Amino acid sequence: MTYLLISLPFLLLAVVLGVVRRNQAPRQLAVTAIVAAVLLVLTAVFDNLMIWAGLVAYGDAQRLGPQIGLVPIEDFFYPLFVALIVPAFWPGRKQDRK
C-alpha cells in the first residue's frame, strides 16, 4: 500500500466535512488558509531535518516520487488534513450559530 492510498481517504474526508459544515465567515476561511500555510512550512522544515538526521525513512516503492527537499509530497497531506478538519468541528461564535 502506498502513502497516497493511506492519506487520500482522510484528506477527502476533511474536504467533504469542510464543505458540508461550511458555516464559516470569509475571515475564518482566511485564517484557515494562513494556518494551513504555516503548518505546511513547518512540516517542510522539520520533516526535512528528521529525514536528514535519519530519524524517519520512507520506502521508495510506497512513495509517489515528487518531494520537497527530502520530504515526499504525500507527507504534506497530514498538516493539510488537520488544517481542514479542525475548523469543520470548531464551534463558531455564539452570534454565528443559529
Describe, in plain words, how this protein is organized in 3D.
It is a single chain. This protein has 98 residues and is mostly helical. The chain has one domain (3-89). It has helices at 3-20, 26-52, 77-89; strands at residues 67-68, 71-72. The chain has a two-stranded antiparallel ribbon. A hairpin with a 2-residue loop joins strand 1 and strand 2 (71-72).
Give a short overview.
With 98 residues, the protein is mainly α. The chain has helices at residues 3-20, 26-52, 77-89, and strands spanning 67-68, 71-72. A hairpin with a 2-residue loop joins strand 1 and strand 2 (71-72).
Summarize the SSE layout with pairings.
Blueprint: H1 3-20, H2 26-52, E1 67-68, E2 71-72, H3 77-89
Antiparallel strand pairs: 1-2
Helix pairs in contact: 1-3, 2-3
Principal-axes shape call = globular
The end-to-end distance, rounded to whole angstroms, is 44 Å
> Which structural category do the helix and sheet elements fall into?
mainly alpha
Mean pLDDT over the full residue set: 81
Number of domains: 1
List low-pLDDT spans.
Answer: none
Number of strands: 2
Write the H/E string, N to C: HHEEH
Gyration radius from CA atoms, angstroms: 16 Å
